[in-house]
Each structure stands twice: as structure tokens, then as C-alpha cells.
Specification:
By secondary structure, this protein is an alpha/beta fold. The chain has ten helices and 16 strands. Helices cover 31% and strands 17% of the residues. The chain has an eight-stranded mixed sheet with strand order 3-2-1-4-11-6-12-10, with helices on both faces. Helix 1 runs parallel beside helix 9.
Length: 388
């Protein structure tokens, strides 16, 4: 991939900084790690430490985490004991940080961090104007709406798939003669955290991703720029906490105990700022990060845009000049988990849903197009019947 890279904006911020990563999925963290290592203080960045709050019991995920810890001894550390689990996992996750530094909480599926983004959120946090400071996050319910209004989102769409193998999984393209989102799923997006487009629809996520990649290649990431966006105006509302700066004192005490994931998201982003009468904000200049997918978007995004994660892998390698680990697993993410669901509810297994030729050949042989059926953690035997 060729893209225009802006001047390196990493610099010292005059305070100690840590990253708190909620760890669980190695297929994303292998990308995120290249950005984390690039931003370590020992590599010219500002991160003095990276702390992993472990929230998985998967053996391979845990083994990969040990590889990361061994690569960066004394700088990377993890939460003690086994995986942090409900009902106290949120309180435990935020209690493993130190009190002498600012932290940036990072979701494990952040797949791009612009040089200077960590510095930008930390420096705004040091101004004490806002309780929490978010980055300018791509694929984020509130900020995707902002990006659309700025004109940064482009009318990407995926042409319909035909029965010819060469027609399977056509790449996303910008609509012909279109400069606005009127005929796009993104047109229905609303400025709210639970919006059906920005937080649930994989097509809206795809539009956000392909628009970002277009601007990255074109050297036009300034299309996303704004100064500071008050996330608590005109009212205290919920926003997605994918990447934000905070102090340990901001989240001290037992108030996060016994809360579900959804309740904690609302508590941190909405309830706490309202209680303290301190707003939250997003920094919009040189602070871009990309969040891959919300739970409701993830499977369909991986299936219908199978090259997207590989594209972000190429970006990470070139942007960070880093080392990608687990390359041999790139094609193994979804194998054995999906099949084509026929009208009679019989499931035809797919060896690899990321293989467009296999999908196209099987749909052509069967004489139609079919939905996908996911069967977690169990191999198909060719005679599976959908239950329920």
C-alpha cells in the first residue's frame, strides 16, 4: 500500500503516561501491538507502560499475550491472576493502574493510531477542562455522525454479488456520480450512542472504514479535523469509550462494581460527567484512531469485507515499520465456524468464509444466494440442521 504519511508528531508531554488495554482477541491485538510499541517512550513515543486487563480465557489468546509480555519486559504488564470476570471485572480492570500518571484506555480492536494521537488526548486532559478526553475515533456512533457532517464519509457501497465466482465479494467502491450519502445506509445514521447505523450495521462500519482508507491513501486525513468536540453538550449523553484519557482518581472507589458492560459504558461516559458537572470531549486534530467493530457489526463485517482486516495489517506494517506477529493465523479466523443456510434450514459448511471462490462456487452449484449460519466452536459435519 502507498499512502502519504504526515510528519511524525510524537513528542514529550511532560508527564508519565500509560495505556490500559482491555485484552481479549489476538487477531486485533497483533495489529494494535505495532502501534503500542511505536508509541513506547523507549521508541520516541510517550507510553511509559502498557497494562493489559485480561478478559479472555482462550488458551491461544493468553499464549499470545505471554509473547507480548516477553517482548517488552518491564514495560508491558498484565492484570494479576486469571482472566478478570464479572461481576467485578470493571472495577478490577481500572484498579490495576498506578496513581502517578495519566492513562489512555484502549479497546483491543483499535487497528490504527495516528502519530500524535496519544499526545493529543493526554495534553488536553492535562488542561483539566474535561473529565474524559476521547480521540477522534473512526467507526464511533457520535463521531461517525460528525465525520459525515464534515464530508469525510464517502458513499462507498458493495456491488451486488452474482453467481459467477468472479463476482463474489466485490470490493467496496464509491458510488458513480455520487458525492453525498443520500443513497447510502449511512444516510439514516443519527447522533446517538445506540444508533442502529453507527453501532449495529456492518455496512455503516464498512463505509467508515473504506472512507478512512481512501483519505489515508490520498493524504487527506485532515478531512476529519475539528478542534474540540464537546461530547456532553447540549446534554450529558452516552458516548463510546473506545479510546480516552483519564486519571486514576477519575474512576476511584467501588462505583464500577457489579455493573454490566453496558451499564459501565453509560456510567463512565454519561452518569459520572453529569454527577461531577464536568464535560467529556473529543480532540479532533492529529488524534485519529480507528475502531474496527462493535459486537453487532463484527461477524458480518469480517464475512462481507474479508480483505478489510488484511488491509489494516498492511497499513500497520507500513505506518509503524513494526513487526507483525501471528501472520500465519490471518486466514484462520473464521474457519469451521460458518456455513450457508439453505431454505430448508440445512447448513452447507464453508471451509473458509473468507475464500470468495469457495463461497461463489457453492452458491452457484446450489442455484441461489443464501444467508450465513454461525455455529460457534463446533466443526460442521455436512449434515448440520439449524436449531430453533
Amino acid at each position: 500500500m502507498v499512502f502519504s504519511q504526515a510528519p511524525d508528531k510524537r513528542h514529550n508531554v511532560g508527564t508519565q503516561v500509560g495505556a490500559l488495554v482491555f485484552y481479549g482477541r489476538r487477531r486485533y491485538v497483533k495489529l494494535l501491538n505495532m502501534y503500542l510499541e511505536r508509541n513506547l517512550a523507549t521508541n520516541g513515543g510517550v507510553l511509559d507502560e502498557v497494562v493489559f486487563a485480561v478478559r479472555t480465557k482462550d488458551t491461544e489468546d493468553l499464549r499470545f499475550l505471554e509473547v507480548l509480555l516477553a517482548r517488552n519486559p518491564g514495560v508491558y504488564r498484565r492484570s494479576p491472576g486469571p482472566s478478570i470476570q464479572a461481576p467485578a471485572h470493571w472495577q478490577q480492570s481500572y484498579s490495576i493502574i498506578r496513581s502517578d500518571r495519566i492513562y489512555v484506555k484502549i479497546d483491543d480492536d483499535v487497528v490504527f493510531i495516528q502519530d500524535g494521537a496519544i499526545e493529543a488526548v493526554v495534553e488536553e486532559k492535562l488542561q483539566s477542562r474535561y473529565l474524559f478526553v476521547s480521540a477522534n475515533v473512526v467507526n464511533h456512533p457520535l463521531l461517525s455522525h460528525v465525520h459525515a457532517q464534515l464530508g469525510a464519509l464517502l458513499p462507498f457501497h458493495q456491488p451486488p454479488r452474482g453467481l459467477n465466482p468472479n463476482d463474489a465479494y466485490k470490493p467496496f467502491v464509491v458510488s458513480d456520480n455520487a458525492t453525498v450519502l443520500d443513497d447510502s445506509p449511512a444516510r439514516a445514521g443519527r447522533y446517538e450512542a445506540g444508533d442502529a447505523c453507527w453501532s449495529l450495521d456492518w455496512q455503516c462500519a464498512a463505509i467508515a472504514h473504506y472512507s478512512f482508507l481512501h483519505h489515508l491513501r490520498a493524504g487527506s486525513l485532515d478531512a476529519y479535523d475539528f478542534n474540540t468536540w464537546d461530547l456532553s453538550y447540549p446534554e450529558y449523553q452516552r458516548w463510546s469509550i473506545n479510546f480516552f484519557a483519564f486519571n486514576s482518581s477519575d474512576l476511584s472507589g467501588p462505583l464500577l462494581t457489579d455493573k454490566t458492560d453496558d451499564e459501565v459504558q453509560a456510567y463512565i461516559s454519561q452518569t459520572l460527567p453529569a454527577f461531577r458537572k464536568q464535560h467529556a470531549a473529543a480532540v479532533g486534530n492529529s488524534a485519529l484512531v480507528v475502531h474496527f467493530a462493535y459486537f453487532a457489526q463484527e461477524d458480518n463485517l469480517l464475512l462481507n469485507a474479508p480483505g478489510l482486516l488484511r488491509e489494516y495489517t498492511r497499513v500497520a506494517e507500513e505506518y509503524t515499520n513494526g513487526t507483525l506477529l501471528l501472520r500465519e493465523e490471518d486466514e484462520e479466523v473464521l474457519k469451521g465456524k460458518f456455513g450457508l443456510l439453505l431454505p430448508n434450514n440445512k447448513v452447507v459448511p464453508l471451509d473458509d468464509p473468507n475464500d470468495p471462490f469457495e463461497v461463489a462456487q457453492k452458491t452457484a452449484t446450489l442455484g441461489g444466494e443464501f444467508g450465513y449460519y454461525q455455529k460457534d466452536f463446533v466443526a460442521f459435519n455436512g449434515t448440520d440442521i439449524r436449531l430453533g
